[in-house]
Amino acid sequence: MRNTISNFKSYVPDLPRDLVESGHVVGNSRNFRVQEGFLTSKDGYEKLQTAALSSRPVGFYDFEKLDGTKILIALCTDDVYRWDASAKKFKFLTAIYIVGQVSCAGETTTVEGDAAVTADDWSDEIAAGDYIGFGSNDPDDITTWYRIDSVTDEDTLELTENGPDTDGAVDYVIRKVYTATESLRWECETFYDGTEAKNLLILTNGVDAMLYWDGDTTTPTYLAEITDAPVAKHLAQLGGRLIALNIVSVGGDIGSALPYTYIGSGVADYDGWNDADDALFQEIYNTPTQIMFAEPFLDYLCVAKEDCIAVLQTTQDPDLPISYSVPVRSEGSLLPTAGKLGQFIGIVTNNDIKLFDGTAQLKSIAHGKVRKTILTLLNAESSSVAHSCSFERYKEWRLYLPSTGHTTPDMVWIYNWEDDLWFFDDEA
Length: 428
Description:
Mean pLDDT: 80
Strand order of the largest sheet: 8-14-11-12-13-10-9
Largest sheet: 7 strands, antiparallel
Strand content: 35-45%
Number of helices: 3
């Protein structure tokens, strides 16, 4: 296989031998595959320590700092990790809490915090489902994690199992885990911020507050702690702005979700989000259906809803810096994935696979038996986990789809847009 199976906007190539120079893997040692939640190296060019992550990986992302340094990001449902090349291991990139010290008497599920914890108030910071480790403030030093069942008050919490006997007060660390899922996946953008003059990694999963990381600190920061950044299911860029799409909430000013709305940040300004009265707070409202994905396309942004596609573009009008075209009907329910196929965007619906040229044209590329076979095998009830990636080198678009009886992708269909040919990859 030429690539590792992972998610839309977050795939990692499995590099062929002919691209490996002098025994080193090109592009930050990305030569591995994922099998049942375990990372395993391939071909031995640089051994990746075989390791189990905290939960099933749902994607990978290659973050590039402004100086060109690349850092591989592993995205799991509960946690995010960064690859530490010097230590040759994945380290946590999850928000943590380490105020004060704690004690646990052993043979009990109760954990008590000291005066510093009381003053800061656990009930404002910690939630059921988070994890606590004892004896260190560094999550990468912890070997045993205990799941938090409930937060009783400002300095007391209960575990789901008996904790250790700490023999007095000790350091601790709480992992404030995330809530991504197979269908609510992580999306990442490398965004240049003019104020800090550096590239930032921006992450969203459609449930938790948006995160950012500068590539230097050991933990990320919730954007909501410093700005009115929205909670959104999708993330993209256009005209030097971050674009959040399919809005779940904003600040607290919006009481219900706005699934057909997008919000733009300031230019090169990750914390310059705008409120509901601003020109960058817009609805794509040809139909009241939710936004499924956003894909860069030439100098535009292709935004697909469940039943139509619109194109966002920048303007010179300060009162409307971003506008969108009249949505084009997809003639079928769209799956949440797309790919760049040369000068086109490939989309998948529940009744066809098509090319979009940015105007009013939708052209079918699944011919006869191919279309019938793919759509017959497709498990429509689990289509929200479908994803795809494009490889310009091979002129291939690879579709990862769940078949009947499967809730995760188990078949790969490959379209070569140069030769207009379809293939089925039975190594998936």
